[in-house]
Amino acid sequence: MSQSHYVIQSKIKNNEEKEVNLEIKLKTTTFSGRLVYQVVCINTNERIEINKLKKKNKMRSLMVGSISHDLRTPLNGISILLNLMLKLKTVFKLPDKLVEDYIKPSLYNCKHLMCLINNILDYT
Hints:
Elements: E1 3-13, E2 19-31, E3 34-43, H1 45-87, H2 89-92, H3 96-123
Antiparallel strand pairs: 1-2, 2-3
Helix pairs in contact: 1-3
């Protein structure tokens, strides 16, 4: 029993003038000494849409990973240094005005920004 396959890919418009991607497979085989043809038409629009969605999902995952690393890492570093300055203000002999006007608000803003980033990443 010998077989051969032919695949044709084509785009046509349906009754609603929407483009349909078709894959037409022609399979020939011999059965009981006779040549037999089998034709299969497959609408590949869903497969194309699934591939597009997979690509979008992969890009979103890469973006979320990049945001997570590129924003959180420096922000964590800043937060750690501000906390260290706050805890060691007497060792560094920092004036109270500097602590109250700059370090505490900066630390608060760091924490607030980290919460915003986390919420955005949780949403995506």
